[in-house]
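Researcher: Go.
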Amino acid sequence: MLRVAQPWLVALVLAAACVPYLSTLNDYFVQEDFGVVQLLASRPWSTFPRWFTMSWMEQIWGNTPDEIRPFIAFSYQLTGKWAPHRPELHHIFNVGMHAGNALLVMAIGRAAVGLSPVAAAFAGIVFAVLPSQAESAAWITGRVDSMPAFFYLATFLAYVMWRRHGGRAWYAWSIVFFFITLFTKQNAITMPATLVAYDLLMLDRTRRGALLSSIKAWLPFIVMTAGYLALRRIVLGHSVRGGVQSWDAVETFGGMVQRHFLRVTLGHTAPLADWEIAAAVGLAALCLAALWIRPRAWRPFVCFCLAWWAIGVAPILLAGYESPRHVYLASAAWAFLVALIVDAVYVRLRRPSFRIAFATAAVAMVAVYVVRLQATLENWHALSRISKAAVEHVRDEARTAPEGTLLLMSVPKKSWEWGVPFVLQPPYQAVDLSARVRLVTPWSLYCCGPDQWNDYARRHIQAWMDAPNRPPVVALHFAPVTGEVSRLTDAENPELRTLLPIFLQTDTPQALDAAMVNLLERMVAGK
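Model: Structure:
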């Protein structure tokens, strides 16, 4: 039976995971949210079985993403089917996933790492309030990492319970959870390595049995992983994304891992302040002291701090880009580390004053994370406000402008990245506004690659030029930080009409993009 901790400790972890994110529940759609929600909310329930043999994003990004994620897709159906134009249900689901992950970290800390109830709860709290988690919990599309992490942690916990207490049901559940994890995100292929590391580092021969017995326990996970990779090769043409093409890729990976470590432990990648350096030295000293005070902590330290982090960051080598959410699962290693220190050192402190000082330092760590998390969330709120305002401005312009009006817009990249043309269409608009206005933005806001954007932008500009009596031109610019809107029409500045034909004379997508950005920054911003 799984007994993690007293209810009040569970309540603390839930509060740490949920309360900071309550402010995100009304945050509007940003970035990929527009395309993801539009596509998946419109698909019938019968699509679910097909997602096991196709890319969940189909071709809305102008290509076929190498991602088979039926359970993620189904989750967007659940949260977007009834009111897809509203973000609340999407955010509630994300916060629930984050809270579930924090509780699972707590449970693993108790059942697998061997932490005391208070230390296990501390691990869950630290995991919950890390500023690096904001992208996964506050961004609607961020669930592509928080949801796989949930089933990954559930798989591991069920396996640990089977190893610790026996019972075929726990083992069966671990296999079921692993199947869901595989078809939630491809990073699940690291699970066999996690299970092997746990068995070899944490269990003695009596618990795990002979090597052959262990291999039998691992075999279903290995076979399922191999089958999943074979399916990817059949459906997508390859088993894993990309690959290591050169030593430069390894060096780039090393740099990303270093920055990810800073994001997890400090909440930023800026140069370290003096007090942060002092805190790092003190924490390293406490870690060594903990390992000296409690030698048996070496095994969980190697397994749940070093190995967990290494296995968690390994898929970044193939990701192709850098994002804080890529270390959402790996960040549990940091939570386990600080909890191990608390568990080993606090109980050895005899003087009440020392215990109070140590507890104060632990609370101060959490407080620093909470403050930095709030700053990160404020950035997400600002992006959301600008995104919503931009969508509303498009709606207003389309309603009042003559049909065929050319609308040039510059919106902060992080608000509308990959958002066009979805922002013109239902569910974000009552009707498809692309029938009334021709929206052209810089390439960074378009759904697809530069060549496809190039065709899209030139086609709309040419259609405007070919229209009888050339409809009006309206240019909008949203300031990156404040969201302040600047508006300019061709009636106010006829130069807008004369520059557009020149745009078509550019010979590359990059040149066209630079010309458009220059126009919006030079002529519109601040007007």
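Model: The chain has two domains: 7-27+87-377, 387-524.
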